[in-house]
């Protein structure tokens, strides 16, 4: 049985506890044994090197250098990493090691909760197969991203709330390699209920399975 660890905490506005419960259920349905932790100390545990998958759900907050380095080493060795929204890519803003691992960092969501479109860029990728571009209402994440990521979906900023970014095409869903490990991220899912949007739940589940070590 493959083993996964979810580590949740940080800013409560992203419903980290509810997201952790939902994702735990999805992973258990896929045959995973799931460990739940609520402090960043879990990332320093030598046992994480034996996991198949790690899911951080920990908006903002801080991570100790040793914790971040052990997490990076585990993924570099083959452990998968997957996550969503601020729980993964607005976590541990001071840790460049962690940001290098994830492939992107949130910097803004102009207009806060707005309507926008998610456009699939690789509809034939196994993670996106059968899905179509869709409209969504939530935070439209503006991010600083690693050019090495493989982009699976994007969004285009209208410029209504920040005129200088009109027409900017921003990655929303991506995957990447980090050493022997696979990393998956989706910026969707500001609140837990959004994870039940069919497109979001499908791409998240597939992305986690893609990232997980066999």
From TrEMBL:
| Coiled-coil residue windows | none
User: Which InterPro entries does its entry note?
Assistant: Class_I_gatase-like, ThuA-like
Domain ThuA-like: residue ranges: 3-211
Top-rank taxon of the source lineage equals Bacteria
Task: Write down the Pfam families for this protein, in alphabetical order.
Answer: ThuA
Write down what this protein is called: ThuA domain-containing protein
Q: Which species is this UniProt entry from?
A: Bradyrhizobium agreste
């Amino acid at each position: 049985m493959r083993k996964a660890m979810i580590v949740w905490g940080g800013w409560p506005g992203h419903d980290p506890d509810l997201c952790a419960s939902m994702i735990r259920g999805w992973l258990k349905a896929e045959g995973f044994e799931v460990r739940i932790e609520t402090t960043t100390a879990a990332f320093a545990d030598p046992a994480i090197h034996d996991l198949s998958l790690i899911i951080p759900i920990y908006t903002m907050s801080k991570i100790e250098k040793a914790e971040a380095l052990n997490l990076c080493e585990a993924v570099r060795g083959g452990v998968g990493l997957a996550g969503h929204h601020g729980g993964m890519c607005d976590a541990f803003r001071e840790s460049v090691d962690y940001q290098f691992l994830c492939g992107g960092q949130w910097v803004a969501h102009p207009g806060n909760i707005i309507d926008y479109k998610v456009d699939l860029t690789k509809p034939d990728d196994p993670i996106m197969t059968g899905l179509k571009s869709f409209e969504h209402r939530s935070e439209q994440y503006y991010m600083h991203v690693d050019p090495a990521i493989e982009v699976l979906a994007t969004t285009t900023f209208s410029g209504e709330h920040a005129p200088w970014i009109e027409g900017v095409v921003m990655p929303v869903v991506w995957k990447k390699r980090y050493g022997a490990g696979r990393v998956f991220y989706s910026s969707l899912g500001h609140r837990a209920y959004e994870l039940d949007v069919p497109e979001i739940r499908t791409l998240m589940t597939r992305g986690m399975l893609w990232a997980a070590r066999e």
